[in-house]
Amino acid sequence: MSRSYRDRIVVVTGGGSGIGRATVLAFAERGAGVVAADIDEAAARRTADLARAVGAQEAFARRVDVASDESMEELAAGLPDVPDIVVNNAGIGMAGGLLDTSPEAWNRILQINLNGVARGCRIFGRQLVDRGSGGHIVNLASAAAFTPNRGMAAYATTKAAVLMLSECLRAELAPHKIGVSVICPGFVNTGISKTTEYVALDAEGQERARKAATRGYELRNFPPEKVAKEIVRAVERNAAVVPVAAEAKLNRALSRLSPGAMRLMARVDPAVLERRGRR
């Protein structure tokens, strides 16, 4: 973990907060030039300021909407050089069953969680191939990628797709000496619990659900910095699939050893558990 990234450029989408910010800072501490890209440009600027303070060779903030081809292409074209490492981290949370998920909600999460990652892979992957000197792409999935759950239809689907996309891309880019890693965190204490959309609930119910989820994440208290550390390690080792946190490692193992048990667990209604927890 002492490797220097001096003279390397690292781009992180969703770099304004959470795992994205922690990843920017982890590479900055190792001397990299970093680009914090986020739909919230003010948050990206704050990350860039922190990155300079901890040792970044240089730090830039860029506004980007990963759901837009044009925005992602502008991000790539506007960088000072082709990045050496790209971390496709930006994403949103969504909870609820498929029957309660409107076409608009379904398309929204696909555009960000899946297509946003695919855009980053395609646009920056092409740049890395054309440059011809290798590089690395890291995609953020989730333990939900291999953990079916009746209340996470849209979210888990996008993360499972990111996992498979990463595996396919890894094979495609290997001849070009470009590594691809997919990171699958468990419950990480970030702000996503406060913004997750609960598709079956009204405004009051959504607020209750978000508060309950936030309490759970805070009690678990697994910090984003630990995920960032695993991202750096994945780049250094060219790791393929990296589950992060005990629950992610356990579910990854169960999905391989006992898929039937995972299917039974998927039937548990999280809303029932949440209501029992309030009693």
TrEMBL record:
<dbReference type="InterPro" id="IPR036291">
    <property type="entry name" value="NAD(P)-bd_dom_sf"/>
</dbReference>
<dbReference type="InterPro" id="IPR057326">
    <property type="entry name" value="KR_dom"/>
</dbReference>
<comment type="similarity">
    <text>Belongs to the short-chain dehydrogenases/reductases (SDR) family.</text>
</comment>
<feature type="domain" description="Ketoreductase">
    <location>
        <begin position="8"/>
        <end position="191"/>
    </location>
</feature>
<dbReference type="GO" id="GO:0016491">
    <property type="term" value="F:oxidoreductase activity"/>
</dbReference>
<keyword id="KW-0560">Oxidoreductase</keyword>
<protein>
    <submittedName>
        <fullName>SDR family NAD(P)-dependent oxidoreductase</fullName>
    </submittedName>
</protein>
<dbReference type="InterPro" id="IPR002347">
    <property type="entry name" value="SDR_fam"/>
</dbReference>
<dbReference type="InterPro" id="IPR020904">
    <property type="entry name" value="Sc_DH/Rdtase_CS"/>
</dbReference>
<dbReference type="Pfam" id="PF00106">
    <property type="entry name" value="adh_short"/>
</dbReference>
